[in-house]
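Entry type: protein chain
Record version: 2
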Amino acid sequence: LSFATAFQGFTTDLDGNPVPPPAPFKRKERSFVPSVTRMFDLVSATASVLTLPFARRDTPTILRPDSPLGAHGPDRTIVAIPEVSLSLVKSTKNAAGVSVNDVLLAAFSGAVKRYLDAVEATPSGPNRRIRALMPVAFPRKKQTGERRWSAGVANNWSFASIPLFVGEDLSRSQRLKKTNEATTKLKNSPAVPIQKIFQDVLYNMLPLSITRNVCADLMGGHSVCISNVPGPQMPLAVAGKEVVAVEVIYPNVIPQVSLFSYRGRICGNIVVDKDAVPRPELLAHMFTEEVRRMGMAYGVQ
């Protein structure tokens, strides 16, 4: 669901006036070079997408135990992440020459490393492999009439697999640089568009039992799912009451981190398996702390 357009349907400004439509989001990647036309990149990306569900799984940790999905039951714990300033994140990304997503992802990577070092009886060490699944949105055609709600606000995205740099002792600036290198490589690759084609075409042709197994292997091999959604930056009201914060809560089959920016603040939460992940509030506070310390590493207060 597109939050940017959905808010227009049930919110107003503080004076009761309709919310103006969101400005078109135009992503600019200075180092982006289309690589679909390069045959080697195309073949390599296709192979990586086909083998991703069956690739080497992440190192077993408290976040991703060496057990089947759902082995601990359906109960989930929801932990709110202390809010952080969006201007702080943007100032950090400007100072480092990266994106907002890079700053948040690198900060979460640092928080995961500190969290695992603190709560695991036997830390998995510098060679641990931990990855995140990140949803990547694609442009959608504007729908009108009867298709407005059936297709106009339907999801149009695919997952991207991204490493979290938690296995080595890196400074915060080094971790952010490595994260930016990984995301830039992903943006310069046709892997995500190819995966989108596969999920829309190939997976729809396969039996449901096979697609379920593929999805389970894909999710079960990763340690966490993380998303960051830009929201309205103007104050909103619902039924005449001011909206002070927005939370997107999703009980996933693996740990889920959902971030949402609203009114110059980044709200968020972590949803984890209640019986498998201890002290998740520690991870939430470490994330906020990492965002602030990363800003300080670039002279941003």
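Comment: Strands lie at 76-85, 131-137, 157-163, 224-230, 237-238, 241-242, 256-262, 265-273.
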